[in-house]
Amino acid sequence: MRAFMAEELANMQLTEAAASNLNNENFIFHMTVMLTSSLPASQLASLKCVKRLMAFSGIRISFLSTVSIVSAVLCIIMDTATEQQSRNEAFDILISLIETSQTFEQESYPGLLRLYSSSNIHNLLEQIIPSTPDDQGWLLRLLLAMFQKSDTARDWIISDGKAMNHLFSALNLDKNSEVRFNALKLVYCVTGNYPNDVPLPPPDKETTLNSIIAILTKSCISEEVSIAANIISHLPRGDKTVDAVLQSSTVLKAINALISHANKSNEFLENALGALLRCIDQSNSSFLIQVGKLEPVIVQMLSTGSSLVKLRAAMILTHLARCSPESSRSLLGALHFRQPSWKNVFLTHCTVHESCSLQRVICLVKAGAVRPLVDMVDAMNPVAAEAALRALETLFDNGNPEPSVPQSMFNAVAAGTIVENKGAAPILEVLERGPVPLKKVALELFEKIYKHSDITSGELEKFKAILFYLLNEEDELKKKAKVLLTELF
Predict the structure, then answer these.
(1) So which residues are the signal peptide here (predicted)?
(2) Which of 6, 177, 229, 427 has a CA-to-CA distance to 261 between 20 and 30 Å?
(3) Residue 10 pLDDT more than 70?
């Protein structure tokens, strides 16, 4: 009889007034009893009734104000004997409760607090692998909703030492696209909030990484590819196994296609460049040479991308412009360059670097990257500005321990390149208005260019005034300012 009444109630067209008559402790008690019934029909009918009544804010708040309803629905999920239709309804109820809750409700209602408890989250994570594909999809959707809505749930998932093992294992299952996609999205959310690089679960670390790479290289769904690239960008540095797998040609080929493809969103490009940054960390010479072929596209992003795209493009160019002599010799063998005499360097190769084609994977001057990097130097965007300044610093590194061109001549030409590209003014602006860490980087670079003959008298006077101001800053800046003022006067 109760099951029949609950079924009828679930199908009725209730008004707010009629629903308010049901909003009492006695009704909620009997509804909880029905949810815990051992009769499948009674249980399913009560779930449908709860789902219907959640549309009314007063009853919904009553459901959240006590742990009984939420606990009963959770028990249905955790009970492996529950019929699939009831489990589906139970998952849908909890996800709806989370998604429709307001921020202030997250930490105030006992029902949500029960849902977001560490023990419950741990149990949900533990259920992923042994569950059916249908339940795996629901579990991941539920955890994803919790992570996105609640700071408490987010902190518990991140702090659970085995959480990433469960989530990466779900990626390896790959039984259906929904499970993989939900696992991928949840890993993506976790990595974006993780305090450090995200560790891959032993002992099948390589299997997990190959699963992510397979999504990057083979998926036809742009969102999946973008998320896989972002996850790769958060993989642990210094892990030889990870480095070796990432340097496979398929990864670089896929990233090349991603960043070269027109009409991609900034978020997509940000993730692709993030993956490329991780790939070039500790990379071998041949891999860096292949990355160097992406130079035209990366340089273009310095002018056309979002702030983060520009930042990551500048960081990649800095890395390539500082490649080791060993890498450069490999490049020489691959590209069959011949060493010119130093007298012809400034005419036939680059206006700055001696035999730069032999000393670097790329040269910023030849790539046309100097002016876009100068344009990135902005006191109001410290992170991007620092990346640009550090890239410009590579102009003063000739990469040759025994240069045939005198270092002083080399430095003068490098300084001239920055000055000719209107670099003095924005660097001075950073020195004047930027945060202290950025001022340190800007001062190191301006120290290398201020003696150039093309620095105007106005720029020099402004530099002196800024140096006097820096005498009031912290010790490192104050010490450097004193030395430079002594040289200037």
Answers:
(1) none
(2) 177
(3) no
